[in-house]
Write a structure and sequence with these properties.
- This is Phosphoribosyltransferase family protein.
- InterPro entries: HGPRT, PRTase-like, PRTase_dom.
- It catalyses: IMP + diphosphate = hypoxanthine + 5-phospho-alpha-D-ribose 1-diphosphate; GMP + diphosphate = guanine + 5-phospho-alpha-D-ribose 1-diphosphate.
- GO terms for molecular function: glycosyltransferase activity.
- Helix content is 23%, strand content 29%.
- By secondary structure, the protein is an alpha/beta fold.
- Helix 1 packs across helix 2.
- It has three helices and nine strands; from the N terminus they run E-H-E-H-E-E-E-H-E-E-E-E.
- The longest helix has 15 residues.
- Strand 5, helix 3 and strand 6 form a beta-alpha-beta unit.
- The strands form two sheets. A six-stranded mixed β-sheet has the order 4-3-2-5-6-7, with helices on both faces. Strands 1-9-8 form a three-stranded antiparallel β-sheet.
Length: 171
């Protein structure tokens, strides 16, 4: 049995981070912006962020890209596009939303994918960012995370612990 994670960011602290991200994004978002969640981990952040933006009067169109690189393990593998966009982004601003920016491979793949689909601009928002070298940078970051194995709030360990209402560490 896996030990309980060490809580690094509480549910209330996550809510504060999401509200700050929404406030930072609000002035930049155009009325026809398409919010794109990177599945699966980004779902929790994207849901909370789109509600926070709605409270600020911004109603995003919503879509998702399902990317996979980990399977049920901890080691990153080949990046796969499992499900593509369902709405057009041609000529539109896109807000990419994800749980954590680590190496940046998934977000770079997603950004390049939506630009090839004709997006006019891509803004990247992440809940957490780790202090490592990255293939891409986020425009807005909710929390500067430590270089630890994170779980909760969409982050998983072998497809488990995503539903924890906090972000914790397993190491």
């Amino acid at each position: 049995m896996t030990a309980a994670p060490t809580v690094l960011l509480s549910e209330a602290e996550i809510a504060d981070c999401v509200a700050r991200v929404a406030e930072a994004l609000a002035p930049r978002l155009k009325p026809d912006c398409v919010g794109i969640c990177l599945l699966t981990g980004g779902l929790w952040f994207a849901a909370d962020l789109t509600r926070a933006l709605a409270r600020l009067g911004i109603d995003l169109s919503f879509d998702a890209l399902w990317l996979s690189s980990y399977g049920d393990g901890r080691e990153s593998g080949e990046l796969l596009l499992r499900a593509d966009l369902q709405r057009p982004v041609q000529g539109r601003q896109v807000l990419l939303m994800d749980d954590v920016l680590d190496t940046g491979a998934s977000l770079k793949f997603a950004r390049d994918h939506v630009l090839r689909a004709g997006a006019s601009e891509v803004i990247i928002a992440v809940m957490a960012q780790k202090p490592v070298g990255r293939a891409i940078e986020a425009d807005v970051v909710g929390w500067e995370a430590p270089l630890r194995y994170l779980v909760g709030y969409g982050l998983d360990d072998g497809a488990k612990m995503r539903g924890l209402p906090y972000i914790g560490a397993l190491d």
